[in-house]
Amino acid sequence: MSKEDNYAAKDIKVLEGLEAVRKRPGMYIGSTDKYGLHHCVYEVVDNSVDEHMAGVGSEIRITINKDGSMTVEDDGRGMPVDLHPVYKRPAIEIIVTKLHAGGKFDNKAYAVSGGLHGVGISVVSALSKKMTAEVRKNGKIYSQSYTIGVPIADLKVIGSCGKDEHGTKVTFMPDDSIFTTLDFDYKTLATRFRETCFLNAGLKISFSDLRGDKIRSDSFCYEGGLVEFVKWLNKTRKAIHQKPIYFKREENGTVAEVAIQYADSYNENIQGFVNTINTIEGGTHVVGLKTALTRVINDYGAKKGSLKKGQKLMGNDVREGITAVISVKMQDPQFEGQTKTKLGNGEIKGIVDSMASAALTDFLEENPAVGKAILNKASAALKAREAAKRAKDLVRRKNALSVGSGLPGKLADCSSKKKENTELYIVEGDSAGGTAKGGRDRETQAILPLRGKILNVEKSSPARALSSEMISNMITAIGTSVGDSFDIKKLRYNKIIIMTDADVDGQHIKALMLTLFFRYVPQLIEAGHIFVAVAPFYKIKKGTKDYYVYNNEELEKKSAELGGKLEIGRFKGLGEMNDEQLWDTTMNPKTRRLKQVSISDAVEADETFSLLMGDAVAPRRAFIEENADKAEVDL
Ligand code: 28F
To answer: Which residue, by CA, sits nearest to atom 10 of ligand 1?
Structure first.
């Protein structure tokens, strides 16, 4: 009679269970490619992690052996070896050979369990050509081996150990008739073990690969757990607060642990875990955290008065630059979604929301500096969002009112609609503006007078810049909008000419305007649409005639040419001239001087603008001292 035949009826059930696993392995481990192969490792390792969570184990040693088998060893309590009351077999045999026998579902000792949705180690043994389990406890070393989930022999005592020694060691060789590959991937496994240690503060995992000529090994242990996890996730970013936000709360069997650290970037990185399974598709725990974040930061902003009445931060505003990890440990998680990595339990949203709200509020109160940093970031995001909306509205308004009535009132537009020969003069000061309107060619020349200095956009956020009336007038008059909505086909003039006085103020305004164009519509500079009107520097009066020259050299030449009694004066400014003179000197295409603005080197121009117009004073002073002799800085 063969061994199989003497199985009692009770064993049929056990065999049926494991047969089902071998028939449809994908149902239990997801797939039989390398993902399924790695799931077997995670299933065994999670049993050891459970021991750490139960407060017993502290170290797990994982080894890929030379023959390609995998060994996992922990210092937990050791699988039970006493007779199972029902099956009259050692408990270890039942755990390893009976489906869902891990007692992980009904035993309180396992408040929560990791694992591939907790299928248990029996699935791994069913899919292994050979598995050996070794337990150290009660001063003895117990061992039993299995093949495709069936014991090869009874549990044996194979030696003795220290009476305080305890733990479980499992070695298994996956069945190559089941798996498409037996080639464990070191990097994938190491990444998962690192993550497991981040999620279980204080747990140490040592991992070695003996297959190659050179042993490869890593070990992970993070006393700081999730706090170290967010810092590690932010290692390529610049955090805006050193101390991450951290809290851990327990509510009737569910534990939620959260760590958050903002960086000065714009993207959002929230990682969710349930029983150490990475819920890539998110779920109710992540929704609960997001809801709490938005509400608490809005309330905090309102309380600190940094939010104007009625101003509301949206979810995206408060999550700009966030790196967060939420790890939930709970009974009976329901997974949904394409890859079963989305938590579905509805009640978790409320539990996490209330836990996170209370903990976040306390944290912000206790750490006002962090609170301020986060508020500033969120407010800047709100302003940028509103500015972008305004820029879009600007374009929309102008397009909607394409008859030009959407244009700024100050603009004296030209009548020609043939863009290729139209020009927009942006003129410093109302008086010069008035004179220019009088002296211009109304057919082709539009005038937009500027009152005083425009904002230095180098030092202000897009939000602030675009909300300045003068700047939005210029943007509207030009017509292309800015940023993502920039469209050069919407340009309303072929030439945009900056006309300011030659004095210090005039130069400063010119620099501010060039900064604006360079930062907001650099495409116009690159396409050669931006010009600077060169105003005369001297006025030579002979009799009733006025002559204008633009520099010392011309002054000498013209004076010599005119000869006789001359009145030579510095050219005061655009406002000093009458319409005709302004026309002759700076607007008549036949006699005026225009300097086309070009960006010879964008990077250098970028540095020049940030140097000249930015916040760093010392480097600017050095630059000016160095370049004082150059009349113009060539951009
Ligand atoms: C390398 C893989 O599988 N370690 C394990 C234990 C410890 C206990 C246990 C496991 C409780 C009643 C179901 C011992 N003493 N490493 C492992 N370590 N299973 S698996 O118990 C099984 C459950 O039946 C254990 C007291 N409580 C739990």
So the answer is: 79
User: Is there a catalytic annotation at residue 505?
Assistant: yes
Catalytic site residue from 505, 554, 606, 607: 505
Decide if 176 is catalytic.
Answer: no
Q: How many angstroms separate the CA atoms of 198 and 224, rounded?
A: 8
Our mutation pick for probing the ligand 1 site, out of 96, 168, 193, counting the most ligand atoms within 8 A of Cβ, is: 168
Nearest-atom number in ligand 1 for the CA of 169 is: 1
pLDDT value of residue 579: 87
Q: Which atom of ligand 1 is nearest to the CA of 44?
A: 2
- Which residues have a Cβ under 8 Å from the Cβ of 592 and sit 6 or more positions away? 533, 534, 585, 586
With contact defined as beta carbons under 8 Å apart, do 22 and 127 qualify?
yes
pTM: 0.62
Q: Is 213 a catalytic residue?
A: no
Q: Does residue 362 register a pLDDT over 80?
A: yes
Using the predicted structure, report yes or no on whether residue 48 has a pLDDT greater than 70: yes
Pocket of ligand 1 contains residue 72 by CB under 6 Å: yes
Please report which residue ranges of 54-128 form alpha helices under DSSP H: 91-97, 121-126
pLDDT of residue 634: 40
Query: Looking at the domain 419-536+573-606, which fold is it?
Result: Rossmann fold (3.40.50)
Does position 148 have pLDDT exceeding 70, yes or no?
Answer: yes
Percent of the chain clearing pLDDT 90 (strictly above) = 52
In the CATH hierarchy, which fold is given to the domain comprising 226-388? Ribosomal Protein S5; domain 2 (3.30.230)
Nearest to 608 by CA among 517, 515, 542: 515
Average pLDDT over residues 467-491: 86
Instruction: Specify the pLDDT at position 538.
Output: 87
CA angle, 634 as apex, 632 and 635 as ends, to 5°? 125
Q: Which member of 43, 75, 501, 546 is catalytic?
A: 501
- The residues spanned by each domain of the chain are 9-220, 226-388, 419-536+573-606, 538-570
pLDDT band for position 34 (cuts 50, 70, 90): very high
